[in-house]
Design goal:
Blueprint lengths: L18 E6 L6 H14 L4 E9 L13 H8 L12 E7 L5 H7 L6 H14 L4 E5 L14 H8 L3 E7 L3 H14 L4 E8 L12 H18 L6 E3 L8 H10 L1 H8 L10 H17 L16 E5 L2 E4 L4 E4 L2 H4 L8 H13 L11 H13 L4 E7 L2 H18 L7 E5 L8 H5 L8 H4 L7 E3 L16 H10 L3 E6 L3 E2 L5 E2 L2 H13 L3 E5 L14 H4 L5 E4 L11 E6 H8 L15 H15 L2 H17 L8 E7 L2 E6 L5 H10 L2 E2 L6 E4 L7 H17 L5
Helix pairs in contact: 1-2, 1-8, 4-5, 6-7, 12-21, 13-21, 14-20, 22-24
The chain binds pyridoxal-5'-phosphate.
Pyridoxal-5'-phosphate (PLP) binds next to helix 14.
Length: 708
């Protein structure tokens, strides 16, 4: 089994990465000198701090100690006269490139490519072996300095999640760079630890007639006001010019940075409270939650286990105590691109600045129109009209109402019921619940008010076995008997999700579609779980090449960032409802929310780049390989994989709580239910993380964590 701390931000002893990221508002603003002075001040205050440079350019590895361009050399000098610490050098440089250029260029020159995931791993690997209490991580240049063509320093910073100490140049125009940097840092959800204003040799930047003293005072004043408005109570340190960086010079700078250093160190637990402090933060959140919040499918008095989450990135969920979990759920199958995807975040920010929301009655906007167009491009042909709603369940309600109104409009007023296979899941609102499996859907609790629908056998023919036409007999019989009462048949194509994670044969869908045509009833596909690539096709309907009359999508529509769903119908259904002045009677307040539409559009753009197919294919292989060892373990009924879905079905219901505890200990996030332990990881999950997810399941079954 892989070591669970291997890629975690915790040391083997459970200590999370501590420190600050020192970033500049640009190149040459005095970031390295400030890092050196902070290092000196913190060391003198008794903290075993190390300056860490993830990437150093302009210096050959052999010349780290001597090159005038080497930051490590500067850090060494900054500690002159300070007692050195055994086994803890002033600085560490993780990557070194000779070309004095941006990291992406300097690395490329040597045939290498830097990326955030690996840089982060290198930083954590260093954290695991060095005896430092905290790191001062120094970036290279400004926040958006590229690490490769897609990622920059800010991406690395947001993956690390450390507070940021910003160093800005105090000169004409410098304030602009600092404010832009502050905005970028806060938009990524990072906290500011402090700001240092460093004087330039020519604050007037060559402009004649500048009142330099006035300019410098005003820069600090405006910045202070801005920080107050943002609610950032952080030290703003004005550094004065030091002519000579000798021991006395360093000491002077260290003194000036003392308030900032104090503030930075105040977030580090002292020896006694090391992890208990962090834990209590999580515990107190869970406690507050328990006195005010209700969780899904849970008791409000007899509390299930609960984990507090601090942040997310890529395929990771970071808990309040710093523990990092590999996500195997995509947050209920929605976060297909992983968390905090930069393109989705950019779309969200841009739309938020422009127009977060307007009512959709009588108004329209570009994000909604563009999203509808993009959806119509990728759904099965014949679907022509998009109705936006707020969640999957509501999309299903809308689909049911569309079917009912369609039948009314053509005079088939007796068609008021729906036919659906057993073991389906379509949501938790009343109408949607009425077409869920009557047993697992808890119909008994609500039977008094649920409309009574017609249920047929679930599609029994496995996806991976030869098709048996007999599996359509039940559908055929019911349609023959009740066809005239049925407004529509509704089902999840190919994969029945929450009702049992069951994969069935595409031929069933083709046969069912034919039966629907013969019975003159509509066919509704609920693609809320299967849409957007999860099964290996953009929509599961493509496996059977069947076109439904109505299709619902949701969950992954916004890449998991915001709630949005769409019910998409054929031109035939739309024109039927609207004939003779008819209108469709539904209109949620937040219909086509512009933020959600903008993010969904960005998510479809990411899908359109085409990487998802390759990603889902490799997840499928990883799942087949990784789950195969579970096949022969005692208690296992079946192991099946389709696209980026992996299922271990047990003979008996599992103990979800004890399994979840086990999984969190192993550093993975899964939420088994009933007899099912299943995986629906984000498409971006790396192979090694897939292995961790699968091994965690195997380990749980071997150790009996599902039984206790
Ligand atoms: C999750 C789901 C729903 C309900 O969606 P919500 O957004 O939770 O309301 C409906 N149908 C299927 C197939 C689902 O997986």
């Amino acid at each position: 089994m892989t070591n669970s701390t291997e890629h975690s931000s915790l040391r083997p002893d459970g200590k999370p990465l501590l420190g600050v990221f020192v970033a500049g508002s640009g190149t040459d603003v005095g970031k390295t000198v400030c890092t050196g002075a902070l290092l000196r001040e913190l060391r003198q205050a008794g903290f075993a701090v190390q300056a860490v440079k993830p990437v150093q350019t302009g210096v050959l590895a052999a010349e780290i100690a001597s090159s005038p361009l080497s930051d490590a050399r500067v850090y060494g000098k900054a500690l002159e006269g300070v007692e050195s610490l055994v086994g803890l050098p002033a600085a560490a440089v993780l990557h070194c490139f000779g070309l004095p250029a941006s990291p992406h260029l300097a690395a490329a020159k040597e045939g290498k490519r830097l990326d955030c995931q690996n840089l982060r791993k290198d930083i954590l690997a260093h954290w695991n072996v060095v005896s430092a209490k905290a790191f001062l991580l120094e970036g290279a240049g400004g926040l958006h300095v590229p690490l490769n063509e897609d990622e920059d320093m800010l991406d690395l910073m947001s993956m690390l999640g450390l507070p940021v100490f910003l160093v800005g140049g105090n000169y004409l125009g410098g304030l602009n760079h600092i404010l832009l940097s502050v905005e970028a840092i806060l938009h990524r959800g990072l906290s500011l630890a402090g700001i240092a204003l460093v004087p330039a040799s020519d604050p007037a930047m060559g402009c004649p007639g500048v009142d330099v003293a006035g300019l410098l005072t005003d820069n600090a004043h405006i910045l202070q006001k801005k920080l107050e408005r943002l609610g950032c109570a952080i030290p703003l340190v004005e550094i004065s010019r030091v002519e000579k960086l000798d021991q006395a010079g360093w000491e002077k700078l260290a003194c000036q940075l003392r308030p900032a250093a104090k503030r930075i160190a105040s977030n580090w637990p002292t020896a006694g409270q090391e992890s208990s402090e962090q834990l209590s933060e999580e515990e107190s959140l869970v406690q507050r939650d328990r006195s005010s919040v209700w969780h899904p499918y849970a008791s409000a008095t007899n509390f299930p286990p609960l984990n507090a989450v601090k942040r997310t990135f890529s395929n990771r969920i970071v808990l309040a105590d710093g523990k990092e979990l590999v996500d195997g759920m995509s947050s209920w199958w929605a976060a297909i691109h992983g968390y905090n995807h930069p393109r989705l975040l950019d779309a969200l920010h841009a739309q938020a600045g422009r127009m977060p929301h307007v009512m959709f009655g009588g108004l329209t906007h570009e994000p909604a129109v563009a999203l509808a167009e993009k959806l119509l491009d990728i759904v099965p042909e014949g679907l022509e009209r998009v109705f936006f709603a707020d969640s999957g369940s509501v999309a299903v309600e809308v689909a049911l109402k569309m079917a009912l109104q369609y039948q009314q409009s053509r005079g088939e007023t007796q068609r008021t019921r729906f036919l659906t296979p057993r073991r389906g899941y379509h949501g938790d609102t009343i109408g949607a619940m009425s077409v869920c499996d009557p047993v697992t859907g808890m119909h008994s609790l609500f039977s008094a008010m649920l409309p009574e629908q017609l249920f047929m056998e679930r599609p029994s023919c496995r996806f991976d076995q030869p098709f048996d036409p007999a599996c359509l007999n039940d559908a055929r019989q019911i349609l023959a008997m009740h066809g005239k009462e049925i407004a529509a048949v509704i089902l999840e194509p190919i994969v029945q999700g929450a009702g049992g994670m069951w994969f069935y044969h595409p031929e069933y869908l083709r046969g069912l579609a034919q039966l629907c045509r013969e019975a003159d009833t509509l066919l509704i596909f609920d693609e809320i779980a299967t849409g957007f690539g999860r099964t290996g096709k953009m929509f599961a309907a493509e496996w059977a090449d069947v076109r439904p009359d109505i299709l619902c999508c949701g969950k992954a529509l916004t890449g998991g960032m915001l709630t949005l769903s769409a019910t998409i119908c054929s031109g035939h259904v739309a024109s039927g409802i609207c004939q003779d002045g008819g209108v469709f009677m539904h209109g949620p307040t937040f219909m086509a929310n512009a933020l959600a539409c903008a993010v969904a559009r960005a998510s479809l753009d990411v899908l359109a780049s085409g990487d998802w197919q390759q990603q889902v294919n490799s997840l499928e292989s990883a799942l087949r390989e990784g789950l195969a060892p579970c096949q022969n373990l005692p208690g296992v009924a079946d192991v099946r994989v389709l696209g980026a879905i992996g299922v271990v079905e047990m003979l008996e219901p599992v103990n979800t709580h004890s399994l979840q505890k086990f999984f969190v200990k192993q550093g993975v996030w899964l939420r088994p239910f009933n007899r099912l332990i299943y995986l629906m990881p984000p498409y971006v999950t790396p192979k090694e993380d897939m292995l961790r997810l699968c091994t965690a399941i195997e380990g749980a079954l071997r150790q009996g964590a599902h039984l206790s």
